[in-house]
Amino acid sequence: MQKRILVTGGAGFLGCHLCERLVAQGHQVLAVDNYYTGRRENLSSLLGQPQFEVMRHDVTFPLYLEVDEIYNLACPASPVHYQRDPVQTTKTSVLGAINMLGMAKRLGIPILQASTSEIYGDPDVHPQVENYRGLVSISGPRACYDEGKRCAETLFYDYNRRHGVAIRVARIFNTYGPRMNLEDGRVVSNFIVQALRNEPITLYGDGRQTRAFCFVDDLVEGLMRLMNVTEPLDGAVNLGNPVETSMAEIANLIVSMTGSRSQIVFRPLPQDDPRQRCPDISRAQELLHWSPRVPLREGLERTIAYFDDVLSKMHDPVRRVEVARAS
Ligand code: NAD
Ligand code: UDP
Ligand code: UDP
Questions:
Q1: Which domain holds residue 130?
Q2: How many domains are there within the chain?
Q3: Does residue 36 have its Cβ closer than 6 Å to ligand 1?
């Protein structure tokens, strides 16, 4: 059945991939975005298609539309971006959730929240299971994002209990892939762009901190399966690839895969940077019959190919020197 689907943050990294998949399934998709970190170019394959529409709007303000489903993704996700205007970050999470939940309540439709592994903070339970309550700083530089997302989750549970809104809460772990913003500041895009430019690879701290990286196609599949569950849901669902990697390992892997001459340089570890993170995805496996399929090396290959193409189209001067030298 064709549905009218609203994707907030639809011009962002995850949002644009999700919009493409939903349109490919035959749905009518409306992306809403204020272009804080997202770009219209991310949606270039969809612009002009009759099934797709994009609208500039800030979700901290009310929005009245008639749709059948909402994916609420609007919120900057990279520490560099969400810390640039911390108050706006919290407003986006909290007011954005209130407005989108208000819409879901009015229309009696399901709504999915893009929550995050950050709600576990710097976790002392490992791997993280959904019933772990987290170890989060209320005052540090990451709090605007972590606490904003925690409050958004609380709003979701309360709209469910009080107003019967059908909610889905996805706790998304680190996800990477083509169409991450070049200036995004997240580790995979930083390391790949630095490696392709033969610039120093900026490893923060001693590089022993871990993350688990999920390729974007897998993540989007997980989000769509979660939206489409038929039984009533209680609580959140972790979505991520449970293969834990240290930042030093990923730096070395990217240097070797790109054949780069970059050296690794050590930089201070940002305040409150989580030491370890890896999802327990048993709940998603059981409930959604979902597991990530794309191994890290394959996902990195596709991401490296994407950034290589972007840099060559930009006539990136550093990269051009290399190409000239090589030929
Ligand atoms: P992104 O920054 O690429 O996308 C976020 C999008 O939201 C952007 O297009 C941005 O312009 C838009 N936006 C920001 N504030 C807005 C506002 N007030 N009104 C309307 N639009 C606004 O980040 P992403 O990686 O695509 O993340 C998407 C969602 O998934 C976010 O909610 C993020 O917290 C969540 N998430 C992502 C990851 C990840 O690894 N990518 C991990 C955990 C959670
Ligand atoms: N809202 C919205 N779109 C809608 C319905 C509601 O943006 O389609 C906003 C509305 O402006 C309100 C918020 O969502 O600020 C919460 O709505 P709700 O009905 O839960 O709260 P109330 O209006 O009763 O305060
Ligand atoms: N990181 C790094 N170099 C960079 C960017 C990030 O070593 O150029 C580290 C960062 O300190 C963190 C990890 O990589 O330990 C993941 O950072 P990212 O910003 O991608 O995501 P998050 O910390 O939100 O998981």
A1: 4-174+214-239
A2: 1
A3: yes
Reported as a single tens digit per residue, the pLDDT across 12-21 is: 999 999 999 9
Q: Using an 8 Å Cβ cutoff, are 319 and 312 in contact? A: yes
244-246 and 210-212 beta bridge pairing: antiparallel
Beta bridge partners of 116: 172
What's 106's domain CATH number?
3.40.50.720
- Mean residue pLDDT of the chain comes to 96
Q: Is residue 117 situated within a structural domain?
A: yes
Residue indicated by tokens 């993704």: 73
Q: How many helices (H) and strands (E) does the chain have?
A: 10, 13
Q: By alpha-carbon position, which residue is closest to atom 6 of ligand 3?
A: 187
Asked whether residue 228 is domain-assigned, the answer is yes
Average pLDDT over residues 194-208: 98
Contact of 11 with 35, CB cutoff 8 Å: yes
Other C-beta atoms lying within 10 Å of the C-beta of residue 270: 14
The answer, yes or no, to whether any atom of ligand 2 lies below 6 A from the CB of 26, is: no
In a domain, 158, yes or no: yes
Q: Please provide the distance, in angstroms rounded to a whole number, between the alpha carbons at the two ends of the chain.
A: 54
Q: Is 267 part of a structural domain of the chain?
A: no
Active-site residue identified among 36, 71, 120, 145: 145
Q: In whole angstroms, give the CA distance from residue 202 to residue 276.
A: 19
